[in-house]
Design goal:
Length: 341
């Protein structure tokens, strides 16, 4: 008879449309962008902007992009690798644990995953957002949603959250190993490209309201002022990976992609960095995206296709995207360690 699990692990990824159709992408984008932690403006303005302007324009274009990366058998790459991570982690943890996967937006939902776990009368639940760097719009939103749902439970197991693991040594070593699969000496420069955030969101992690961030943010906030600064956590990840790759500071750059709207986002933008690299006469770039622990539309299309085409149009020759952590056994071991606390 199989032993009943007593400890629950909830892995949470950002999300993906159910199918690469305009209707499904519209639903996904609407839920994502209507999250007040993502689009942190008043509800009425957010509704008019998201449902009246952004989603109607972006949904058909995004659906077309999703179709280029969608596999006939396995579907969404993000879902495929996330399910692999869940299953491999379950194998590593054994029967004392029950591992669930949820998406912050769309399916499987956090509510459905927690509903399964509620009925198991677990002694503890540990939530691991699959975002190495903390941001209110990602990990913060996951934690917020979990607490919103669980506040209706009639009993509470011991609940804990992993909010950040930006400079985890083994995780960074795994990224470095993936990068080293490419002859680094063949490239002119290395880029670390992260998902962007509006600058105004950086200072909001300081409850005192005294943290005022410059337009481009800074590298040192994590160690000098606020350890939850997303920008400085990105720099911390980059420094750790670069050290393990044997890079000096002048051999790599940190940049930020996926900005939306006209409000200032943290800089330098990846597109601007590509222009700078081209102006310096660089021809071959190696790109890592350590904000993502599984390959997805941002790595497989935005960097590997859009930015590669942009760089070539500027006179560059090649942009090589380093594979994400995906189902690497060392990454699964990191998850195991995080799960066990």
């Amino acid at each position: 008879m199989r032993k009943s699990a007593t400890k629950g692990i909830l892995l949470v990824q950002l999300g993906t449309p159910d199918n690469p159709t305009t209707a499904d992408v519209r639903r996904y984008l609407t839920e994502f962008l209507m999250d007040p932690r993502v689009m942190d403006i008043p509800y009425l303005g957010r509704t008019l902007l998201v449902k009246g302007a952004i989603v109607p324009k972006r949904a058909p274009r995004s659906a077309a992009t999703y179709r280029t990366i969608w596999d006939e058998k396995t579907g969404s790459p993000l879902m495929y690798y996330s399910e692999l991570q869940r299953d491999l982690l379950q194998q590593e943890l054994g029967e004392d644990y029950h591992v669930e996967l949820a998406m912050r937006y769309q399916n499987p939902s956090i509510a459905s995953a927690l509903q399964k776990m509620e009925g198991m009368m677990l002694e503890s639940i540990r939530v691991i957002p699959l975002f190495p760097q903390y941001a209110s719009a990602t990990s913060g939103s996951v934690i917020d949603k979990v607490m919103e749902i669980m506040r209706h439970w009639q009993y509470f197991p011991a609940v804990s959250f992993v909010s950040s693991y930006c400079d985890d040594e083994e995780m960074c070593e795994t990224f470095a190993e993936h990068a080293k699969q490419h002859p680094i000496e063949d490239y002119d420069h290395v880029l670390f490209s992260y998902h962007g955030l509006p600058v105004r969101q950086l200072g909001k992690v300081d409850p005192s309201g005294e943290l005022q961030c410059p337009d481009a943010g800074c590298e040192s906030c994590k160690v000098t002022k606020n350890s939850f600064c997303y920008l400085s956590q990105c720099y911390a990840t980059s420094r750790t990976i670069a050290e393990k790759m044997g890079l000096t500071r002048d051999q790599y750059a940190v940049c930020f992609q996926s900005r939306l709207g006209k409000t200032p986002w943290i800089q330098p933008y990846t597109s601007d960095t590509l222009h700078e690299m081209a102006q310096r006469g660089f021809k071959k770039l190696l790109v890592l995206s350590p904000a993502f622990v599984a390959d997805c539309i941002e790595t497989l299309d935005e960097i590997q296709v859009e930015y590669a085409d942009e760089f070539k149009a500027l006179g560059g020759e090649k942009v090589t995207m380093v594979e994400s952590l995906n189902d690497d056994p060392k990454w699964i071991n990191v998850l195991k360690r995080l799960a066990q606390g």
